[in-house]
């Protein structure tokens, strides 16, 4: 069967170039209009050289089903929480020292001495809990609304992988302050992972960077928390968003599809 592609949505009216002022027009345009036209010219200049506007319009300006409500914003809220964690994590990494002898002191310096350090660490610390809560609510909404069914099964699998990676990022970040509570809690968590079938012992050795907790364990957790897991989350999140834009969103289960009048007349 031939496959039909939906046309690319048109550019919003605010980004469309206005007709040029005729030569005999009365008076110049105001500063606001001049600035707006300058921004539109910049967008046109970039679009002419990159041709990205079609893809952006395809991703951002698309139809949504009737009955869409605030439950559908949980995915976007989770993505915003991840971006917040990434930004605050970068600033924390500027002062953090992932060594067994300096880790705790570097965290203490961030909280007590660095400019806005307590605020940034608080955003990162509580933001991790917010992200876990949001992604669980998003998964629950997807399940109860039946959005995991055909043809969105792959998107559901990617979402489950993102949930596991979010838990992994929370677990690896818990050790980084390297105080007594985080140290012994991480030992308990790694030992629990070691009880898993087949891959459990290998996973524990991978997390500890050896058979026992040592000087390289903290560096291993720091590398996983800062580079490995965020990179995987960013890649899978991009694939997740692509499939959402390609397949669309599902209508709420309490909304019934309206039947065309021609089909009803044929049945009669």
SSE diagram, text form:
Elements: H1 31-50, H2 53-60, H3 74-93, H4 103-112, H5 117-144, H6 153-174, H7 180-194, H8 200-208, H9 215-247, H10 261-267
The CATH architecture classification of the domain at 70-247 is Up-down Bundle
- CATH fold group of the domain at 70-247: Cytochrome Bc1 Complex, Chain C
Uncertain spans, ≥5 residues at pLDDT below 50?
Answer: none
Estimated share of beta-strand residues:
under 5%
Describe the structure.
There is one protein chain. This protein has 268 residues and is an all-alpha fold. It has a domain at 70-247: Cytochrome Bc1 Complex, Chain C. The protein has ten helices and no strands. Helix 3 runs antiparallel to helix 5 and helix 5 (117-144) packs antiparallel against helix 6 (153-174). The relative contact order is 0.10.
Compact summary:
Helices cover 64% and strands 0% of the residues.
Note the main attributes of this structure.
268 residues; mainly alpha; Cytochrome Bc1 Complex, Chain C; 10 helices
């Amino acid at each position: 069967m031939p496959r039909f592609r939906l046309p690319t949505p048109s550019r919003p009216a605010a980004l469309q170039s206005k007709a040029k002022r005729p030569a005999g027009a009365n008076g110049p345009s105001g500063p606001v209009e001049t600035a707006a036209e300058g921004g539109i010219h910049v967008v046109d200049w970039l679009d002419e050289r990159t041709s990205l506007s079609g893809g952006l319009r395809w991703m951002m300006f698309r139809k949504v089903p009737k009955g869409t409500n605030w439950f559908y914003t949980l995915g976007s809220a989770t993505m915003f929480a991840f971006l917040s964690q990434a930004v605050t994590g970068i600033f924390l990494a500027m002062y953090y020292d992932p060594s067994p002898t300096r880790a705790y002191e570097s965290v203490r310096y961030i909280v007590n001495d660095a400019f806005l350090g307590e605020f940034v660490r608080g955003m990162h610390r509580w933001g991790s809990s917010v992200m876990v809560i949001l992604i669980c609510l998003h998964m629950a909404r997807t399940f109860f609304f039946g959005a995991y069914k055909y043809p969105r099964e792959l998107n559901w699998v990617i979402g489950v992988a993102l949930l596991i990676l979010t838990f992994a990022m929370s677990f690896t970040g818990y050790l980084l302050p390297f105080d007594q509570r985080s140290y012994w809690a991480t030992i308990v968590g790694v030992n629990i992972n070691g009880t898993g079938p087949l891959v459990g012992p290998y996973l524990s050795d991978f997390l500890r960077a050896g058979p026992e907790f040592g000087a390289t364990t903290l560096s291993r957790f720091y590398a996983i928390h800062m580079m490995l897991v965020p990179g995987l989350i960013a890649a899978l999140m991009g694939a997740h968003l692509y499939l959402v834009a390609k397949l669309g969103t599902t209508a709420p289960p309490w909304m019934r599809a309206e039947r065309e009048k021609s089909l009803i007349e044929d049945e009669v």
